[in-house]
Write a structure and sequence with these properties.
The protein is 30% helix and 30% strand. It has 203 residues and is α+β, with helices and mostly antiparallel strands. It has a domain at 66-202: Archease domain (Archease, Possible Chaperone, Chain: A, domain 1, 3-Layer(bab) Sandwich), CATH 3.55.10. β1 and β2 (74-81) form a beta hairpin.
Length: 203
């Protein structure tokens, strides 16, 4: 007996089961509902995993723009950036980098500091000294990244946030202890789209 093709009177719009375009090639036509729901769940789960968690700083280190220069019994940090604010941030990260391997520090929390001075050099000194203080005393915080949130050049005031965690000798390699920030040969220089600072730390 010759078979006849039976056409349904129900349109595709009435069925309303066609998958989104991105799933059409992957879903077999005879099991569209099941395949679409499973695919949507998988895609939604992947999207959630790929989204950064709110309030958590990404585990990415800024470009390193500092170096250590030999100095009699001490060490000099030379840091630079697009402007003086970035040079300050890099100098603080260079200080922490001298005390441990920054790659072992995770972004688990933040610490906020404020500093002021009567000129730019005293502001740089106070800025670094505040971060050194929260490392040497409770909460014994070591920063992986420094972000200056307010840089008042007219009144010589700074607000900054350190991203990192509590120092743990079992996790963080112990580098060289920084005893103090010094004014010895402290310098800053600015030009168009470039700034640099030089700071000697007592070790």
């Amino acid at each position: 007996m010759e078979e006849k093709e039976v056409q349904s009177s129900v349109t595709d719009e009435e069925r309303d089961v066609s998958p989104p375009k991105r799933f059409k090639e992957k879903c077999p036509p005879d099991n569209i509902d099941a395949e679409v729901s499973i695919s949507q769940l998988i895609v939604e789960e992947v999207d959630l995993l790929e989204q950064p968690q709110i309030g958590v700083e990404p585990q990415v280190l800024p470009e390193i723009k500092y170096e250590y220069l030999d100095h009699t019994a001490d060490v000099q940090i030379h840091a630079w950036g697009f402007n003086l604010q970035e040079a300050f941030e890099q100098c603080a990260m260079g200080m922490f980098g001298y005390m441990t391997d920054i790659d072992t520090v995770d972004n688990k929390g933040t610490q906020t500091i404020e500093a002021n001075g009567h000129d730019m050099l005293s502001l740089l000194f106070g800025f670094l000294d505040e971060f050194l203080f929260i490392f040497n005393a409770d909460p014994f915080f070591i920063a992986r990244k420094i972000t200056i949130t307010s840089f008042d050049r007219d009144n010589f005031k700074i607000k900054a946030v350190g991203h990192g965690e509590t120092f743990d000798i079992s996790k963080h390699p112990q580098g060289t202890e920084v005893k103090a920030i010094t004014y010895s040969n402290m310098q800053f220089h600015e030009a168009e789209d470039y700034a640099e600072v030089f700071v000697i730390i007592d070790i």
